[in-house]
Amino acid sequence: MLRWRIGFTLFLFSLQFVVILCVNAQEPEEIDLSQPLTLEQCIQMGLEKATSMRNARLSLAIQELRIKNARAGYFPTISSSGRYDFSDRLDFGFERENYNLGLTGRYTLWDNGQREVNYAQAKEGLVSTTSRNEGIKQGLILQITQAYYDVLKDTELVKVSLDVLERSRENTAQTVALEEAGVLIPADVATARVREANSELGLVNNQNSLQISQATLPRLMGLDPGLLITVAVDESFQMYLERGTIEKIDITVEEAIQVALENRPEFKETEAQIKQQQWSLTLSKLQRWPRLGADVNYNVNLDDYLHERQNFSDFRSWSVGASLNFTLFDSGVLGNRVKELNMQLEQARENASDLERSVALGVRQSYLNLKRSETAVEISNTQVVNAQLSLDVIQGRYKVGKAILLEVLDAQTSYAQALTNQVNAFYDYKIARVRLQDAMGVLQ
Prior knowledge:
Order of helices and strands: HHHEEHHHHHEHEHH
CATH superfamily of the largest domain: Outer membrane efflux proteins (OEP)
Distance between the termini: 53 Å
Structural class: alpha+beta
CATH topology of the largest domain: Outer membrane efflux proteins (OEP)
Low-confidence stretches: 1-27, 90-96
Number of strands: 4
C-alpha cells in the first residue's frame, strides 16, 4: 500500500512538472524593444498585437459559440414563469392578490433534419473562418516583411546619400581652392555647389523615407507609430556585397501555380462557404416539412395555497402536449427563398472558378516579377563595378590634367546612382521573393 502511494505521488509530481513545462513552452518570449529587432521578432509581435489578428481571433471565438448554439438545438429548453397581479374576485369579504409560478419544458421531437443542417452549417462556418484567418495571417506577415525590408533599404540609401554628400562637399572645397588659385573659373564652383545641393536634397529625401518606414513598421505590428524601432543589421545584404550573387528560385511557374492551388487558404475558405450555402439551401427546403414538438407545463397556484394552507397537491397542476407545425400557405415566400439560394450558390461556384484563374494569374505575375528582380540585381551589381572603374579612371586623368572637373562630377553622380540602384534592386528582389511565397500560400 505504501509503495502504491509513493508511486502515485511521484506520478502526480511528474504530471505537474510536465504541465508546467508545457505552459512555459506556450508562453511567448518577451521581446525587448530597446534592442534591434529581427524580422522573426517583428512578425511574432505583429501576430500577437496587430488589430487584424485580434479581430481574427475574436471571429474564431464567435464561430465556436455558433457551433455551441447549433449543438444546443438537440437539447430541451426549460423556462420558468411567475405572475403577480391584483384580482377583482372577492373572497372572505376582502380583495386578495394572485400569485402563480410555473415551469415549461419544450423539446423538438422531429424536424426532418433541420438541427443536423444547422450544426453542419456552423461547422463549415468554423472551417471558413479558420481559412480566412490563415489568409489574414499571411497577409500581415507579407506587410510586416515588406515594411521591415523598407526600413533596411532606406537605411542603406541614407548611408549611400551620406557618402555621396561627403564627396560632393570635398569636391566643392577643392573647386573653391582651385578657383582661388586661378586654375578654375567661378562657373566651375557653381557647378560643384549645384551637385552638392542635389546630394543634400537626396539625403533629405532618403532620411524622410526612412522615418516613414520606421513609423510604418510598428503600426503594422500593432504598436504606436511614434515608437522608434531599430532593426538588426541585414547580414544577407552584406553577404551579397561580398559575394556579388543571390540565391535564385529553382522552380518553374507551372510548379509554383500548382503549389498555390494546393495551399492558398482562399480555396479552403471558398469551399467551406459553398458548403454553407448548400446547407442553407437544404434548410430552406426542409422548412416546407412539418415540425413535431413536445411541451411540458407545471404550475402552482401559490395564492390559494398560501391562504388555504391545505394539501399542496391540490394547488398544483401539470400538462403534457405535442404540437405539429407546418406552413400551409405563405404566398410563395419559401419557394422564392429556395430560388434565391440556388442563384447565390451558382454565383459562389462561379466565383470559385474565377478565383482559381485569378490565383494562377497572381502567381504568374509574382514569378515574373521575381525573375525580373533577379536580373536587375545582376545588372545593378555590374553597374556598380563599371561605375567604380570609370570613376577611378576619370579621377586619375583629372589628377594629371587630362580630364575636366565636370567629367569627375558626372562620374561621381553615375557611381552614386549605381549604388542606389544596387540597394533598390536587392531589396526589391527580397520583397518579390516574399510576394511569390505569399502568392503560393506558403508564407509562414
